[in-house]
Write a structure and sequence with these properties.
Layout (H helix, E strand, L loop, with lengths): L1 H15 L10 H4 L14 H6 L10 E4 L4 H12 L12 E5 L3 H7 L11 E4 L6 H10 L12 E4 L11 E4 L4 H16 L6 E5 L3 H4 L1 H9 L3 E4 L6 H8 L6 E4 L7 H10 L3 E4 L4 H10 L15 E6 L3 H6 L12 E4 L7 H9 L3 E2 L10 E5 L7 H11 L2 E2 L5
Parallel strand pairs: 1-13, 2-3, 2-4, 4-5, 6-7, 6-8, 8-9, 10-11, 10-13, 12-14
Helix pairs in contact: 1-4, 4-6, 5-7, 5-9, 7-10
């Protein structure tokens, strides 16, 4: 699966998304034949560098190297849904405003089964080129699982021409938008959520890991901030009192008073947190409570790595946590240096073998963003930490 995604990403994303080809092409004509070459025929060195070559892929990492969230979202959508045949296309996509990180994180829940709608970014006046190219390739047509919709529009985004039925999601404050998405999720899934995540409305770096979990689990994301539990959040919680609530982030982002207010609505409330965004994401990756949480405390997993100050990229990457090697979102806080806490976590889950590496477990890390976000040196260090190692015995 990883090899397939790498091949599709190299052959298709370069030409169709970040290469700026015409959005009028069909999926079949826009997609070149899969190729293992770094740059396909007709590709320039400049276009390769735009994707971050030669750091695009190592043996344990794959980079989605767009220079902006729209490009990264388009590339991720095409990696999860290669779209070379109708069976590989999603029934719907979700379009979110280019600056709406809160709506994007909450909308990640629509990537979970049965809807499976990847996220793309758009605006009131039209879509960025990368989004238009991805839409032309993905060609969603709607299905019973999407309520007939080919697109879900979150916020002030224009419905693309010729796309078919579009379902608009009522938006407003982060809490109001998230509650609207959560209620849409209930209608489409046909059942209440097993759990609910409440994330910080004012600190996106602490909220970002919720997107990956929502896409993987189908658990909706709501918002609170400081001591406040907004009315839309409280209203949704009151209508789902049987679902345990998990507050993501430290008390500096969502206070103990807010947690107590949530507990008065639903006493089954728990906090998952770290003191800073990097450790907060690691805590969520490690966390397990019954059926909730990644519980990634051993080797053999996928991971997604993004910058903590790029919540739109974190939301854009959510489909990678709900397909392929399914894994949690981790965060780094600089382009060049891997945080110490993240290094220790990768060491703790580093895979190994005793006699036969073909029977070992393996880790794979998706790196999100270009080299200004996460440079090749940090990617190389991540690759080294993800590499399977021989344990004991003769060398």
């Amino acid at each position: 699966m990883i090899v397939l995604l790498v091949v599709i990403a190299i052959g298709f994303i370069v030409a169709a998304v970040l290469g700026g080809s015409s959005g009028s092409k069909s999926a079949e004509s826009a997609a070149p034949a899969p190729s293992g070459r770094i740059a396909g025929e007709g590709q320039t060195i400049e276009s390769a560098e735009q994707l971050g070559y030669p750091s695009f892929a190592t043996d344990n990492t794959t980079r989605v190297g767009g220079s902006d969230p729209a490009s990264n979202a388009a590339a991720v959508a095409l990696a999860a849904f290669p779209s070379t045949t109708p069976a590989q296309r999603p029934a719907a996509v979700t379009l979110v405003g280019e600056d709406d990180w809160a709506g994007a994180i909450a909308a990640a829940v629509l990537m979970a089964p049965p809807v499976r709608a990847p996220l793309l970014f758009s605006g009131s006046g039209g879509s960025p080129d990368a989004t238009a190219e991805a839409l032309a390739a993905l060609s969603p047509e709607g299905a019973k699982s999407t309520g007939g919709a080919a697109a879900f529009l979150v916020g002030d985004v224009a419905a693309p021409d010729g796309l078919g039925k579009a379902t608009k999601v009522r938006s407003g404050s982060p809490a109001a938008t998230a509650a609207s998405i959560a209620r849409l999720r209930d209608r489409l899934f046909g059942e209440p959520p097993a759990h609910i995540v409440v994330a910080p409305a004012n600190e996106p770096e602490f909220a970002a890991p919720a997107a990956a979990w929502a896409a993987r689990s189908g658990d909706p994301v709501l918002y609170a901030a400081g001591d406040e539990v907004p009315k839309p959040t409280a209203s949704f919680l009151k209508s789902h009192r049987k679902a345990p609530v998990y507050v993501l982030g430290p008390s500096s982002a969502i206070s103990s008073a807010a947690v107590r207010a949530i507990a008065r609505i639903d006493p089954k409330v728990h906090r998952v947190s770290g003191e800073d965004p990097v450790s907060n994401a690691i805590a969520f990756a490690r966390y397990a409570n019954g059926g909730f949480g990644w519980n990634v405390n051993d080797p053999g997993h996928g991971f997604v790595l993004a910058r903590g100050d790029a919540p739109l990229d974190a939301a854009a990457a959510a489909p990678l946590s709900a397909s392929g090697t399914w894994g949690p979102l981790l965060l780094t806080d600089s382009a060049g240096t891997l945080p110490a806490a993240l290094r220790e976590y990768f060491l703790d889950v580093k895979p190994g073998y005793t006699t036969d590496p073909t029977r070992a477990f393996y880790n794979h890390v998706w790196v999100i963003g270009d080299q200004e976000a996460i440079d090749v040196n940090q990617q190389a260090k991540v690759n080294e930490l993800a590499e399977v190692a021989k344990i004991g015995g003769e060398p």
